[in-house]
TrEMBL record:
GO biological process per UniProt: dTDP biosynthetic process; dTTP biosynthetic process; dUDP biosynthetic process
NCBIfam families: DTMP_kinase
Organism of origin: Pachysolen tannophilus NRRL Y-2460
Enzyme Commission number, as recorded: 2.7.4.9
GO cellular component: cytosol; nucleus
A Pfam short name: Thymidylate_kin
Protein name listed in UniProt: Thymidylate kinase
Lineage of source species: Eukaryota, Fungi, Dikarya, Ascomycota, Saccharomycotina
Length: 213
């Protein structure tokens, strides 16, 4: 008989959404809750602006004068995810939970919203570990977006562009392991609780192999 007992590993949990929908607040809150529960976890935010590639990306995002073709920008964002691949896998295998603030889906949604081919964008990320759960923070009335703190400071924070990105993200809404949380008119704590309910079955580890894009 085939052996199907896998060693327990940590879960890969991703929080996605448009700019200024509260991803960073929620990933930090989730991280703190896990640590309070004495569960080992690590938070990785993409783009990771601290690496050499991440520094280039940061310049590109904050300095709207920086010229980069859409393709090369995409490949830099993708390379930035590949830089962290081994760390993610090693952490999961050590039993740690990894919380991601953006990942492959942001890559595909933002870059294809600029007109690049959807599958070309995804191809660059094929082989990266796939999240066990993706939670999309959905602002249904996104007219509110432009009133959020700091909005418009970075390259992609333009309402018309965000609408296109949203449309690309919706192509993933029915994917396996995707959950959509409506964030309109909810407090930070309410949203945190909804996230917790969706991930609490994963916090004690998973007995299946890591999946890959
Ligand atoms: P943040 O630090 O979460 O605000 O993200 C920075 C910006 O980068 C945000 O507007 C989303 C965008 N972004 C993230 N990943 C990718 C990618 O792979 N391609 C492109 N074009 N944009 C991305
Ligand atoms: Na942003
Ligand atoms: Na953010």
């Amino acid at each position: 008989m085939e052996e199907t007992n896998y060693k327990k590993r940590g879960a890969l949990i991703l929080i996605e959404g448009l700019d200024r929908t509260g991803k960073t607040t929620q990933t930090i809150a989730l991280m703190n809750k896990l640590l309070n529960e004495k569960i080992q976890a690590n938070l990785i935010k993409f783009p990771d602006r601290s690496t050499p590639i991440g520094k280039l990306i940061n310049t590109y995002l904050i300095d709207k004068e920086t010229q980069l073709s859409d393709e090369s920008a995409h490949l830099l964002f993708s390379a930035n995810r590949w830089e962290l691949k081994d760390k993610i896998i090693n952490n999961l295998q050590e039993g740690k939970i990894i919380i991601l603030d953006r990942y492959v889906y942001s890559g595909v949604a933002y870059s294809s919203a600029k007109g690049l081919d959807f599958n070309w964008c995804l191809n660059a990320d094929l082989g990266l570990p796939k999240p066990d759960k993706t939670i999309f923070l959905n602002l249904e009335n996104d007219q509110d977006l432009i009133n959020r703190k700091g909005y418009g400071e970075e390259r992609y924070e333009v309402k018309n562009f965000q609408d296109k990105v949203k449309l690309k993200f919706t192509r993933f809404f029915n994917d396996k392991n995707w959950e959509i949380i409506k964030v309109d008119n909810k407090t930070i704590d309410q949203i945190s609780l909804e996230i917790w309910i969706k991930i609490k079955d994963l916090i004690n580890g998973i007995e299946k192999p890591i999946e890959f894009f």
